[in-house]
Amino acid sequence: MIRIARVEPGSIAADLELPAGLAVLEINGRPIRDSLDLLFHQAESSLRVLAEQRSGERLLLEIEKPVDEPLGIIPEPDKIRRCTNACPFCFVKGNPKLDKLRAPLYVKDDDYRLSFLHGHYITLTNLRPDDWDRIFEQRLSPLYVSVHATDSDVRLAMLKNPRSANIGEDLDRLSAEGILVHAQVVLCPDVNDGPHLTRTMEDLYQRGDAIRSLSIVPVGLTIWNAGRGGRALAPTECRAALAAIDAIRTRALAERGTGWCYAADEMYLQAGLEPPGPDYFDDQELESNGVGAISSLTHDVGRRLGELGALPGRRVVAVTGLSMGPTLSGLGDRIARRTGAEVSAVGVENTLYGPMVTTAGLLSGADHRNALREAEEFDVALFSAQALNDDDFFLDDVSLSELRADFPGRRIEPSRDFVDVLSRL
Q1: pLDDT tens-digit readout, 154-163
Q2: In this structure, are residues 58 and 52 in contact, taking their beta carbons and an 8 Å threshold?
């Protein structure tokens, strides 16, 4: 069952005055196990909803609605399926100790429901027979799968889970039922790079359209997990990987008309190279995996630059991670020429995870606060909206309202592309 956390204003559930705490047990006689079942089974025009109040009283609701109209129920969070692997490069294990972060950040999830709903990468190692049945019944496609290596021994060495060696069988099973996969390789030096990477790319490419894309991401280590025996890729290793990726991309472009395999922005930055432009990514939406974020931001700012009016004398500062700093400086210059504002970018070293973690979305509230205190005088401060959760808290539980209170009289705004905030000034 699921319990209602709240309902959308103006929705069917609001019209029915369904209260928070009401449990939804069944829809059309089928049990509702979680929010995915709710999403799947409410997509009919005639519904018989069996619900139960906290008192134990049961209600039967008969609802007629358009097929594509949701009920408007926002359920309480589902219980997360936990990861059963022991990857030495696990980013959750790279969190600070002593519970310095929000509690959910210490949860190792490996949940196929989150993969389908939100693009989380999963390993397929904790699926039970009923999970496989559900994936096929509800057509949960595409799924996002951390393959890492198609060689069973290499993958087993990485995930430390006997079930992980079955990756070939698991991918065959998904393909046979028409479930598409976006695959990922977290590239670890001396582990799954070199010939192992070439084999993995070739094996996945040979699976045809069943593998929609392959992202190659360099391993990200923090000061908390860097001592577990792994290391970051050297620039020469990144360039060797990029050469191998380019080779299979050339083949894919000739045979399929798409690049298919994509290196994360960080791979280029660690190699000392400029990340590619938007044509490289074939309209694949893989930015949450660090693929194409720089290109997308540059393209979006260029496309929307005409929306900006004159902002003479306004002092704007953008806080970001070290990897995005040069890009934002260049974009800031373009915005300054367009608007007459004074625009500067501050690349901040991550004090929570260490200097090896350079993305803006993993900067803490304290990092933002310290950067703004050290910045020149400013009227408006922008930072990546990815640094906040849905409740406007940073990783270290500093809230946006707390950050704003530290700088009275100045505007502190989360942003996705610079223009979204500046166009409203």
Answers
A1: 999 999 999 9
A2: yes
What secondary structure does DSSP assign to 152-194, as a single string? HHHHHHHH--GGGGGHHHHHHHHHHTT--EEEEEEE-TTTT-T
- Domains within the chain, CATH numbers bracketed: 2-75 (2.30.42.10), 103-291 (3.80.30), 297-422 (3.40.50)
Which phi and psi (to 5°) does residue 384 adopt?
-65, 130
How is residue 292 annotated by DSSP? Answer: S
Question: Under a CB-based contact definition with an 8 Å cutoff, are residues 41 and 27 in contact?
Answer: yes
For CA atoms 6, 10, 12, 17, give the dihedral sign.
positive
Find, among 322, 327, 324, 320, the residue nearest to 356 by Cα.
322
Q: Which residue has the tokens 């950067």?
A: 371
In this structure, the chain runs to a length of 425
- Give the C-alpha separation, 316 to 279, whole Å: 30
Token code pair at residue 239 = 């360039």
Beta bridge pairs of residue 145: 122, 183
Decide the pairing of beta strands 411-415 and 380-384.
Answer: parallel
- Tokens for 339? 């608007």
* Distance from the first to the final alpha carbon of the chain: 46
- DSSP 8-class letter at 139: T
Sequential DSSP letters for 258-316: S--EEE-HHHHHHHT-PPP-GGGGTT---GGGTSSHHHHHHHHHHHHGGG----TT-EE
CB 250 within 8 A of CB 190: no
- Total Cβ atoms within 10 A of residue 357: 21
Count of beta carbons in the 10 Å neighbourhood of residue 84: 15
Half-sphere exposure of 229 (CA within 13 A, CB side): 7
- pLDDT at site 99: 64
pTM comes to 0.87
Kindly report the backbone phi and psi dihedral angles of residue 315, in degrees, each rounded to the nearest multiple of 5, phi listed first: -105, 115
pLDDT digits (tens, 9 = 90+) for 26-84: 999 999 999 999 999 999 999 999 999 999 999 999 999 999 899 999 999 999 888 99
Q: Which of 341, 329, 265 is nearest to 296 (CA)?
A: 265
Amino acid identity for residue 233 in this structure: L
316 forms beta bridges with: 343, 380
Indicate the range of 107-111, 332-336, 341-345 predicted with least confidence.
107-111
Long-range contacts of 12-15 (CB under 8 A, 24+ apart): 12/63, 12/65, 12/69, 12/70, 12/71, 12/72, 13/71, 13/72, 13/73, 14/72
